[in-house]
């Protein structure tokens, strides 16, 4: 490459046309590609706001400074001679570096790692008798933005960690923005928000070495939850399969607190919100999660974005459990203001009220997913809060945190946070003010701005706090006695699990406590488990090699809630991923046929071959290879199928080293690993034709449960699809439960 002539003034017409197409050589720009078009000043959901053209963030074809000055060089600092020092007067250099120096904003203090998507919510109208919220009236479509997250990890941490997941939804309604800021677990660690810093300090990495990242398997977390038994129920949910969801798309969501809905006639109903995934509920197994965090730390982010991009739009039905708004706010003995309690669906069914479809990925992660600001206090007429002391503290915290995270009080003006309802507030000035307010009287009452803005009455959509009679009370720092039961719902949850799920819980506790250094912490947590379930306690104690303590409190039994189990249902196979393992000996036309058959069902087929490129003989069918033996790992697939060659032949099976001509051909170890992992993780496995011998070579019984063999692709694709509907081949896990006890 020729040495550049630094005396050429970039952008000036050159007498000698450049001979090398060097990126820094000035030339006429190409027209922008569609995805390079200037970003419009758009509303969060992509519809134009009507903002004037000059409010575009970026426009034009030429590189400019932030002031719109066209630039001819952005690769060389202005120097006193080619080998001399850089000059302070280089305004472009200083602007570029200064801006870069300030690119990062503080990550969220919790829920720093997340992924977002745009979508729409269409209401069924079934809630219109109990709420006047306009977006819940019949057949109203409301734009939404959803952000899923983990709680503990930093912004760059891995996705598939054992943790609670956030599930926040921003509804851009005509009556103002409504935020439902929930989790994938319906109970919380603490009953009073004043303890939030304590539980988070305990769960975050240790302050001295800042390890472990995004983990609860460490001393401070278990120190806190073992001393603070109201956290036991939430912790048990974390130790269950719910703590490691397969995908954001296969998680339920919960509003956790009890909210108050207000009808047009002023009547009120207490409710708990639920999101039910149309994709079904589905989790990883722990070994899979651990592999994923190394192989693909962005697993959940990628899964969500890929699904949306491919048109497999994830959907959730929003539902409510309803309770009479009684004076004591209790339901079947459960205190509705205690956020460590849930109400079993068998006692109060979840009634569907609308459907959410996520149908668009964000254009820019920072602008949208990072800068979106949720707040449980973003309410609309018809939805109000209750006196749950956790919710009450949240009402303070979310507004406050945005001020340091987003740099001031004007974060509602950031495009993703802009309401779609008209805004006419009297909030003025402040850091990052981008509105140019007219008028002279941002106060009330005024006569100088004609009395504007006017106060609304309820008839024109004013939010009116529900007038609530409060019992005569004294000022005190105390919980009601009904908050004292810390174990009965943990027991209810555990006893509602199937043996397989119970076994996973035992393994999770044994792993996590096994990572604690302090024996006293392990002992104390075993004591808490003894109060939840003696069998659970004994099994974990066995795994830890520790004595089994006895229960210390009398815990009331309640009926199990089968609705809590994630096993037993069947769901659509669409949106799942199936790997087709092939090699040069495979019949490409059969591989193509398998791909097509899967694709027709909305399943994503990925062809795995020894090397990239295409499979197939010259002049015949050519099939693109999506993964190689090097890049594929079983964790990416919900099922795997081994392709056979056209004519069954003893030495023509996948992954065999046919060239070596060994009498007993060997299976490529990477294929063997893929198959054995898939088998161990209870995934459907299939093979057609000579592919069957690859199963045998991997030690997988071809007559095993959830193993399908046949002569041709059409003999295996349909059975695999049926197996996918149950999510896993559950029978392959040990059925006795409570492993090790
Ligand atoms: Fe919180 C973020 C969910 C209790 C304080 N929380 C945050 C997010 C979710 C939740 C999903 C991420 C929002 C996003 O994607 O931007 N939090 C919950 C749930 C809780 C809960 C379901 C209990 C039922 N949170 C809670 C308490 C406090 C906070 C008790 C403080 C007293 N939460 C925050 C926060 C965050 C937050 C510090 C960090 C970033 C943000 O708010 O915007 O204010």
Concise description?
With 741 residues, the chain is of the alpha+beta class. It is built from 16 helices and 20 strands.
Global outline: globular
What is the count of DSSP helices, taking H or I runs of 4+ residues?
Answer: 16
Radius of gyration: 30 Å
Structural classification: alpha+beta
Distance between the termini: 70 Å
Mean pLDDT: 91
CATH 2nd-level architecture of the domain at 114-191 and 242-417: Beta Barrel
- In CATH, what is the class of the domain at 114-191 and 242-417? Mainly Beta
How many strand elements?
20
Outline the structure in words.
- The protein has 16 helices and 20 strands.
- The chain has 741 residues and is of the alpha+beta class.
- The strands form 4 sheets. Strands 1, 2, 3, 4, 5, 6, 7, 8, 11 and 12 form a 10-stranded antiparallel beta sheet that branches. Strands 17-14-13-18-19-20 form a 6-stranded parallel beta sheet, with helices on both faces. Strands 9-10 form a two-stranded antiparallel ribbon.
- The radius of gyration is 30 Å and the shape is globular.
- The structure holds CIS-heme D hydroxychlorin gamma-spirolactone (HDD).
- CIS-heme D hydroxychlorin gamma-spirolactone binds at residues 108-111, 114, 147, 149, 166, 168, 181-183, 188, 193, 196, 256-257, 339, 372-374, 390, 393-394, 397-398, 401.
């Amino acid at each position: 490459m020729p040495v550049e002539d630094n005396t050429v003034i970039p952008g000036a017409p050159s007498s000698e046309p450049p001979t090398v197409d060097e990126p820094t050589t000035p030339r006429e720009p190409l027209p922008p590609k569609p995805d390079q078009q200037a970003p419009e000043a758009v509303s969060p959901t992509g519809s134009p706001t009507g903002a004037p053209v000059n409010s575009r963030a970026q426009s034009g074809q030429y590189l400019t400074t932030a002031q719109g000055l066209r630039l001819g060089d952005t690769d060389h600092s202005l120097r006193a001679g080619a080998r001399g020092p850089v000059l302070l007067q280089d305004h472009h250099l200083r602007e570029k570096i200064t801006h870069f120096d300030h690119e990062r904003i503080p990550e969220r203090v919790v829920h720093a790692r997340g992924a977002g998507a745009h979508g729409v919510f269409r209401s069924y109208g079934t809630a219109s008798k109990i709420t006047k919220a306009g977006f819940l009236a019949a057949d109203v479509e409301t734009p939404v933005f959803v952000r899923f997250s983990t709680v503990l990890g930093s912004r760059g941490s891995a996705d598939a960690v054992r943790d609670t997941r956030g599930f926040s939804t921003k509804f851009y309604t005509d009556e103002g923005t409504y935020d439902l800021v929930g989790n994938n677990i319906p109970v919380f660690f603490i009953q009073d928000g004043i303890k939030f810093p304590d539980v988070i300090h305990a769960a975050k990495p240790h302050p001295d070495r800042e390890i472990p990242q995004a983990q609860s398997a460490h001393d401070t977390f278990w120190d806190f939850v073992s001393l603070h038994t109201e956290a036991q129920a939430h912790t048990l949910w974390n130790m269950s399969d719910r703590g490691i969801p397969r995908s954001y798309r296969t998680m339920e969501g919960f509003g956790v607190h009890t909210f108050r809905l207000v009808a047009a006639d002023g009547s009120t109903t207490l409710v708990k919100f639920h999101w039910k995934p149309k994709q079904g509920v589905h989790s990883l197994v722990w070994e899979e999660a651990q592999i994923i965090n190394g192989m693909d730390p962005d697993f959940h982010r990628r899964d969500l974005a890929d699904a949306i991009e491919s048109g497999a739009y994830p959907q959730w039905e929003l539902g409510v459990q309803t309770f009479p708004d009684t004076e004591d706010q209790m339901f079947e003995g459960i205190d509705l203001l205690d956020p460590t309690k849930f109400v079993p669906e068998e006692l109060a069914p979840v009634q569907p009220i609308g459907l959410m479809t996520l149908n668009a990925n964000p254009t820019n992660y920072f602008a949208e997913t990072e800068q979106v600001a949720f707040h449980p206090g973003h309410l609309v007429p018809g939805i109000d809060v209750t006196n749950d002391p956790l919710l009450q503290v949240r009402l303070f915290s979310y507004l406050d945190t945005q001020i340091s995270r987003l740099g001031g009080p004007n974060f509602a003006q950031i495009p993703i946070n802009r309401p779609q309802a008209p805004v006419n507030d009297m909030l003025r000035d402040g850091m990052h003010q981008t509105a140019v307010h007219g008028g002279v009287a941002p106060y009330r009452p005024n006569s100088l701005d004609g009395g504007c803005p006017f106060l609304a009455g309820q008839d024109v959509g004013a939010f009116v706090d529900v007038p609530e009679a409060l019992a005569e009370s004294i000022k005190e720092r105390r919980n009601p006695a009904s908050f004292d039961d810390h174990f009965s719902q943990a027991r209810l949850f555990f006893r509602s699990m199937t043996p397989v799920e119970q076994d996973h819980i035992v393994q999770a506790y044994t792993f996590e406590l096994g990572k604690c250094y302090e024996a006293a912490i392990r002992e104390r947590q075993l004591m808490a488990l003894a109060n939840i379930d003696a069998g659970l306690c004994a099994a974990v104690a066995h795994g830890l090699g520790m004595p089994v303590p006895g229960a210390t409190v009398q815990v009331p039994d309640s009926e199990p809630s089968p609705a809590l189990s994630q096993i037993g249902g069947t769901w659509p196979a669409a949106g799942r991923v199936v790997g087709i393992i092939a090699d040069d000996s495979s019949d490409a036309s059969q591989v193509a046929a398998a791909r097509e058959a899967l694709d027709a069902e909305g399943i994503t087929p990925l062809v795995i071959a020894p090397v990239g490129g295409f499979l197939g003989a010259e002049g015949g069918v050519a099939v693109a290879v999506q993964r190689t033996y090097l890049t594929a790992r079983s964790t990416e697939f919900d099922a795997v199928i081994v392709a056979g060659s056209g004519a069954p032949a003893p030495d023509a099976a996948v992954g065999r080293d046919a060239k070596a001509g060994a009498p007993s051909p060997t299976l490529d170890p990477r294929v063997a690993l893929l198959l054995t992992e898939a088998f161990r993780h209870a995934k459907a496995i299939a093979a057609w034709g000579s592919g069957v011998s690859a199963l045998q070579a991997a030690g997988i019984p071809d007559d095993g449960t959830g193993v399908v063999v046949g002569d041709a692709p059409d003999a295996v694709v349909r059975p695999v699809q049926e197996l996918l509907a149950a999510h896993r081949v559950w029978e392959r896990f040990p059925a006795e439960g409570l492993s090790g006890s």
